[in-house]
Amino acid sequence: MRSENKLKILNDPIYGFITIPTTLLYDLMQHPYFQRLRRIKQMGLSSLVYPGAEHTRFHHALGCMHMMQKAVQVLRFKNIEISNEEEQALYIAILLHDIGHGPFSHAMEHSIVENVQHEEISLLFMEALNKEFEGKLSLAIEIFKGNYSRRFLIQLISSQLDMDRMDYLKRDSFYSGVAEGNINSERLIQMINVHNDVLVVEEKGIYSVEKFLVARRLMYWQCYLHKTSVGAELLLAKILKRAKQLTLQGIDLPASNALKFFLENSVLKADFDKAVLNNFALLDDADIYTALKNWQFHTDKVLSYLSNAIVNRKLFHVQLVTKEEFNSRLDHYQALCKEKVQVRNEELDYFVFGDKLRNQAYDLKADPIRIITKSKQIIDVLEASDQYNLKALSEPVYKYFICYPKSIHKN
Amino acid sequence: MRSENKLKILNDPIYGFITIPTTLLYDLMQHPYFQRLRRIKQMGLSSLVYPGAEHTRFHHALGCMHMMQKAVQVLRFKNIEISNEEEQALYIAILLHDIGHGPFSHAMEHSIVENVQHEEISLLFMEALNKEFEGKLSLAIEIFKGNYSRRFLIQLISSQLDMDRMDYLKRDSFYSGVAEGNINSERLIQMINVHNDVLVVEEKGIYSVEKFLVARRLMYWQCYLHKTSVGAELLLAKILKRAKQLTLQGIDLPASNALKFFLENSVLKADFDKAVLNNFALLDDADIYTALKNWQFHTDKVLSYLSNAIVNRKLFHVQLVTKEEFNSRLDHYQALCKEKVQVRNEELDYFVFGDKLRNQAYDLKADPIRIITKSKQIIDVLEASDQYNLKALSEPVYKYFICYPKSIHKN
Amino acid sequence: MRSENKLKILNDPIYGFITIPTTLLYDLMQHPYFQRLRRIKQMGLSSLVYPGAEHTRFHHALGCMHMMQKAVQVLRFKNIEISNEEEQALYIAILLHDIGHGPFSHAMEHSIVENVQHEEISLLFMEALNKEFEGKLSLAIEIFKGNYSRRFLIQLISSQLDMDRMDYLKRDSFYSGVAEGNINSERLIQMINVHNDVLVVEEKGIYSVEKFLVARRLMYWQCYLHKTSVGAELLLAKILKRAKQLTLQGIDLPASNALKFFLENSVLKADFDKAVLNNFALLDDADIYTALKNWQFHTDKVLSYLSNAIVNRKLFHVQLVTKEEFNSRLDHYQALCKEKVQVRNEELDYFVFGDKLRNQAYDLKADPIRIITKSKQIIDVLEASDQYNLKALSEPVYKYFICYPKSIHKN
Amino acid sequence: MRSENKLKILNDPIYGFITIPTTLLYDLMQHPYFQRLRRIKQMGLSSLVYPGAEHTRFHHALGCMHMMQKAVQVLRFKNIEISNEEEQALYIAILLHDIGHGPFSHAMEHSIVENVQHEEISLLFMEALNKEFEGKLSLAIEIFKGNYSRRFLIQLISSQLDMDRMDYLKRDSFYSGVAEGNINSERLIQMINVHNDVLVVEEKGIYSVEKFLVARRLMYWQCYLHKTSVGAELLLAKILKRAKQLTLQGIDLPASNALKFFLENSVLKADFDKAVLNNFALLDDADIYTALKNWQFHTDKVLSYLSNAIVNRKLFHVQLVTKEEFNSRLDHYQALCKEKVQVRNEELDYFVFGDKLRNQAYDLKADPIRIITKSKQIIDVLEASDQYNLKALSEPVYKYFICYPKSIHKN
User: Which residues form the HD domain (chains A, B, C, D) (predicted)?
Assistant: First the structure.
């Protein structure tokens, strides 16, 4: 399955080493579609808050593959049969599961590639690669799409305890330095098993699951939903929206060819042919940053004001408010902004805006995390826990916030 | 010295927390000149070899300041007097010591900003900031230039045991995952002292110094001089040289405004006025990557071939050779390349090229690392060590290599 | 406050270094009363379950002092005044807070030194030391007893967020390898402050408190209340009880002089004069292990059977049962045991016994952990949290178990 | 090969988890001969210097087995055939290689069990176990004795790059907190291979070997040969020698039965029958500590003075001297001691004594560490390195020292 020449070991500060298991995986990793992930940060603008969070989607994808190798090893040790073909398909599917992410995904999905989700683009990439690699990705694609007959393989790729989460919580916690999110992925993986074709966690692993869910909750509040970085993301979405608007008005904005394409065209899912995909594959964080740096000097005040805010980290103030006061506070800050920053009515939405945050560590409606007791009973982890602790984690929590320029408080 | 409002704590995966000690330092950090370091990777193209090495010069600068805070604390604990003014100057000088780095510094210094060293540009930035901050950086600049009366303060900023090295060896080792380079910076700093105005290490710290020098040597071979990343850097220097050449020929290459400026102008040190500096301050890794991605499709074969090699990680083969065979091997590979890749004579230097690497962990001719014995004698660390081990580390080692496209070996 | 000669730095795998701040603290550490803690393991018999958990009460005491140094540093940085005398008293009080622990404390307190708690013995030791050190511990003793006027100093020594917990959760998690219990003590300490003489945590630290309480809960289940080590502890208590019983019957058991003293005498708190204290100070883990090794060959079957169970790790089975079935299961196993192991009726309690475990991460009735909001309001952490999660942690959870020899299941 | 019931996973703070691969290994671990290693500290009296160094020979043995599992995995991945029987024999041999250690081995070997080395006793234990386990250890014993036909298997157990060193350097560095000794064992093991039946390291691993040898050198100076702990060890050897002398004179010293046996009998290798072995198996650190605590009050001044020095950490001063001045300094301190501590002539050797330390990181005369180049040449690591650095490490370095009571400097 491997040729010595291509057999590679990569350093990882977290796991020590990541081994590339087969030449096919090596070749997929070498493909420009995958190499582009080197230039897309996993946590987008979070490094504005946590300066260590510079790690890339490339490294995360490798980490997921490593976690999957551990999982296969543990399950086989417990006498669960996984064929060599299935094994490789698992590695491919998890390696490529996020390949459809663009730069600053959340901001992009609400501005540049509207209404196309990154999972859909991942699938498009996989199918394009499957053609190039003469059908060798077919099984991986089946599993990724959730169509394969063996359910636990699908769950390893996508579920509330999948290998994606095993890596990203640990990796994001590691690089951001937010120790509250550190989970013991290897310990958790040691505890998994398969029963009636379904992924389960052995009873003694229940505290590891509890730790994992609590860590997830804390990572959401402290990282993914950190109000400053969520605010920065919204800012970027506003910038891209404005850039698109100006472009539609015929104003030529400096931008890379790839970015220009998406500013000039409204791309729906149906439009995503090979040419569009190749354009998309050329987009990464560098295009955005280069554009923002040019745009900070543009004559359009909205574009330049907001671009400058990100490039030079003059971020907006992000104010938490209650649901009830949301509308009135929004009005209040818009009025203030209009006066202090001298913004026109129709541009106020670019300067004062808000949204809500939602945090739910465990989703009651999704496929549950299952515990297998010593007597081989299967129960939902919420039932297995000894107290209300975990039940509380399944309650979604909402927070509302409003962003506005800090200068509106100045005289 | 601090106003609560600006008092900030930053997360660092290595040290836990970094505290910003004064509002002046906070304000300097907020300046666009410093914020740009967020977009320049500390290890340049090394992430092509070590995917974790994505950390920025911004984070390194903060880490140096943190190490300096430890050093001040240790020295004061040992009754060395350091005034509050000197303390802050130390923090400023170390925070800004690398502010003059451009993106992919080594490649740049041999192509874009020829004959101007990053230390010189750092000083230009500091002086510009000193004007803006009304002279508050004057003492820091004196120390940085090596003009201050108290010698050990200068040594903390720049010497064979300065706070820069304390942070970068540890940080680069941490993020690259090359454990051989991990040093115990805090332990080393615990061991420093001052005697007759000169920085010394207490005798019991001699093994820590030995470990530090060995780690430095290993980091050079495994990271800074890793042949693949050195080869990639040379490749980038060739690309920038070609781009400049084409630009001089009147060919308009797609590039950001800032990059265009440096392609169009030969900038000497004397030319570095405020406007040039501001242009330089707009340059970062994103400009280079965006350009390379555009250039990989350019009609100039040299430009597109080499750009593609970096963007899609189709790096050249890097062959170690002896000093004696260097010239003949270079001729050999150029001939091969001419035939296989169909390169014109005058472009051969862009496709087949070489250089030498130099590794010297401890420089005998520079200001030595001094050990203070229990009887208060000062001796060079080489004399203090119990064996030839350290002496060996002061011998420079050279390696020669040649880079060429992998395709010249194909049929 | 310090003389160079005695100024010491100690290595700690967790914190890197621990500095001894004053000569008085150095001298206290050198005292045989304190040095004995080197021979008492922090987690008693837990190393039978977690082989890394061999760390001593000596090291924990130093770790607490180190945490206290951090706390003092943080509070002073926030302009809370702490005099040098108070500072040293804090270090003394936390260094000595556990000095009254005997070997395998939990087993001892139910057998050898009945009805005298280790806190009381700690106080006796402190008072004896205070005499030797001519009153220099008086302030520390006031704080330890909770009598001092400044309440937050008392809370740093003993509360639901004291420096003892800061160290032991981290240390026990580190050495046992139970990663679920790892807390970020330094981060938590960064967040403390004092308001109206009371210890508070700043609002942004609320997730760190949540993590801390969850970690505490998990450490209880996985370490402190691990059924196997709790079972081993009960076994040891039974052995000591039996040894005392046999001694009362005039049977001379091999034992060190110190252990013999406590086997021969029923020591109440009132009996604890200097001579008794000195005898107690001679007791450590070695006395117990040496005795057990001798006793495993004793003619008394109870003594030898149980001693062998610990020495050679032939631990009893520990069966979790419900509260309701506890009594009937106890009867059942005693009957089985009587038959299979041939135990006499009056000795059955030595072979089959049970107890209940209680886990409550946060005590609603004790002094609460207080959060201070940005508007300087003080609220209980339970109120400050955004969900039921923390409330759940204040519900005590009970588990019942029964221990019996594994051999009763054999034919 | 494994029965689910006995399949166990153990926590290890260093590696995360250690898996017990077969039931035979589980059963060997449960044997009292092996369980006793729980009560013997790996680094003896070093915890008097490094308070974290409380880890046991039990844990080290498990760590070695874990390293061996990694080595087998790596070699098989590189297509080196290792049969299941050989695999298990490797695990057994490395698990038991140190089973013959008594408590405070170095002190013991020069006093209690004179002229019998721990390797010989290890072999005696293995042979006794082989009888009990009906010959299942025969292959392991062959390998341990160096008699097996496949040489690299022997080298994995015992050589300058064996799995013993892989674990102990890492483990001792971890627990002592001496970061200079931290090696990347997993990385090194990734680099091993077998060529012509001999263990080799791949060329790219040369820096890891260099780091390993330097770490070894530093660990010797900072831990194993730390003058304070070497001094404490000599002190203990003196105590045991005195105890034996007094016992021979008919004085009955309090001691456990096992210790008494070795005080009363001069045991040569030929005397080591099953009964002696069983007596030896009862000895551990607890016997020594319990004895020392009793002996500190003995009427024999030598015994009580020295015992008190260890129990209460009133260690002797250890003075480094040159080889030339050794004898004269020894005379000088003996004369001083005679006067100040009032020691009789014939007892002076118990109070003032010295020795030499020897540190050689790499032994030129032993089986070398072999590097395999890309062209499959085998060369000694010294030849493969690019400088004198490694050659220097093969020079033995000697230091001379003298120990004496600190009180001889008082008036």
Answer: 57-169
